[in-house]
Amino acid sequence: MEYRKAKWADVVKYSFGGLGSNLAFILAMSYLTFFYTDIFGIPTMVVSGLMLISRFIDAFTDPLMGMLGDHTVSKWGKFRPWIMAGAPFLGVLIWLLFTAPDLSPTMKIVYAYVVYIAYSLASTVVNIPYHSLTPVLSDDPQQRTVIVSFKQGMGTISQLIITVLALPLVNAFGGGAAGWSRYGALIGVMTCISFWICAWGGKPYDKCETKKTDAPKMNMLKDLQLLVKNKPMLMLMIAFGTDVLANACTSAANMYYFKYVLGREDLVPTTSMITLVTSVIAIFCLPVLTRLLGKKKLYWLGSACSCIPLLIMWIRPTAGTAILMGSLAAFGFISRFPANLGWAMLPECSDYAEWKFGQRADGLMSSSLTFINKFGMAIGGFLASFLLGLVGFVANQEQTQACLNMIVFLRWGTPIIGYLCSLASMWFYELTDDKTAMIRRELEERKHKNA
What we know:
The chain is mostly helical. It has helices at residues 8-39, 44-71, 80-97, 105-137, 141-164, 166-172, 176-202, 220-228, 231-261, 267-293, 295-315, 321-334, 336-357, 362-390, 401-426, 433-450.
């Protein structure tokens, strides 16, 4: 069967959304907790509360944004208008997120809450339509995997800019609060431009075939049933969410681990580069391994094997540099498979909804995974801040043994728990490659009959 495919030039342009999306995501996941506690001077318990409250807001706004995208009718398409209009606001809020104005302790907390919640809303407006475009670009399951690989390939550039270059650039920009603010402004501008290029790539495919007067009215209860009754989507959400939670805990505790446990902050750029290099190698391997093993099996194996290097470092947290580098290199390679495959499997869940219930909901499905992505990140950040506060962590001083043990557990132990939960959920994911191909055939047959 001949599937509708996207032009490769448009795939490349669309993949710039992976750069913009991951710049903000990785920056917040890797450094925001550290910035709030060690630069802005906010207590860890306050930071944990902020992360948690914002996710309750996302629980309402993310599905709403997905449904708004599905029901949008404009001359610019269904999803692109949201990306183009929301990108500048998101860029400004990233800058404000890493700006530390001279305020009273109370007003610092107010500032952090207002800016972070506004940032989260802007991220919702831009990222959900961006991810919703993947199944719109192509009907070919294999090309969809390649499109996601391109997106995630751009994500590795984001990883380079954030995890490897952040601290050197912050220091080059003057260090301290001023350095972080200038670095945040740079990331904000890059994020905005990246999403505009992404919208340009989606232009030939994001079409509205109905007029505003003919478009079906939004029915939230009916639309949400497409999600609640979609078992593969629910299993993917759990598996993907626990993976994100695992990596969020790891990222939130990373700076604390190198600063307080090893006393080697200088190793952060080097170890980040090693993880980045192996992640890039994994992205090139993804389409080949997907064809050999299938998406479900590769996801399962990736989650299971990711636990091995984590366990080694949990047992020996102060092991030599060679063991540390080797473990991080292995983890960077293996963990990239489940991290990428979640987005590659998302269009299959949209196809399943159309096949099973006769209604497509790309925006709603994308919003669900985006919400889980942000929810896992927030819970990871919440756990890191809450548990550190629970054992008496105080920034910029020598830590007690209880604090050091907690940092080690957060950096290496909690990810293992997350991956084990992911394994259990993915066991019940029923969309094998054969079933996905059957669903695509039947959908194409329906389309030809109704033509």
